[in-house]
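USER:
Working in pairs, take the chain set out below, taking as long as you need, and write a paragraph about the fold.
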Amino acid sequence: MSDHFFEELTALLEIVATYRCQVIVAGDFNIHVNDPADQHAVRLSKLLASLDPQQSVKQPTHGDVKHGNTLNLVITRFDGLPSCCTVDPPNIVSDHGLVVCQFPTIPFAVQWMEHIGRPWRKINLEAFSRDLRSSALCVSSDELRQMTSTTGH
């Protein structure tokens, strides 16, 4: 595990922390998080503790259940932890177990907007044109001066 990996993971988690939506970072990290003596596991644990994301996989994901290591991780924010996280044992296809998580539904606010529009396709163009020509918007500047002087403005 290189310093570059931890620098990039830190940058990713810092960006994800600013999102308003739930983000799940999951995969084979190839770090033995179940081994407190593993320097990379300690470093990852400190990183997660500093940014507040949580790692949810607590069972071995690689090798046998008794002597295996937890390499596959599911990282979420504290408010998005899975309600259940299990690991199916490795099989013939892979030496990694299948991590299965159930996440609670995340409510989101639907913003209601009222839109008032005009049915422009149904407009009578002749009547609109006639009304526009007779309005104060289409008078000459002389006529406008005359209109404003007679109304006292």
